[in-house]
Write a structure and sequence with these properties.
It contains one helix and five strands; from the N terminus they run αβββββ. It is mainly β. The protein has a single domain (about 5-50), classed as N-terminal domain of TfIIb. Strands 1, 2, 3, 4 and 5 form a five-stranded antiparallel beta sheet that branches.
Length: about 70
């Protein structure tokens, strides 16, 4: 679970593209809402780790072989 103050979440921006974040409480991540970015940043404790090197791609390509 992510327990961030809504005011803090409102001012945070993706360090890669400067878009806002959506919260993924199941994975404890902040997910960039930018259409060309989509990185997911971990939240450890109540601290978002907003380092691009620590982020992972949040979106899957959807083209996995069957």
């Amino acid at each position: 679970m992510i327990d961030l103050d809504p005011e803090v979440l409102e001012v945070l921006a993706c360090p890669n593209c400067h878009s806002s974040f959506a919260v993924d409480p199941e994975r404890s991540e902040l997910v960039c809402t930018g259409t060309g970015c989509g990185l997911a940043f971990p939240v450890e404790g109540r601290i978002p780790i907003l380092l691009v090197d620590e982020a992972r791609p949040a979106r899957s390509s959807g083209s996995s072989p069957a």
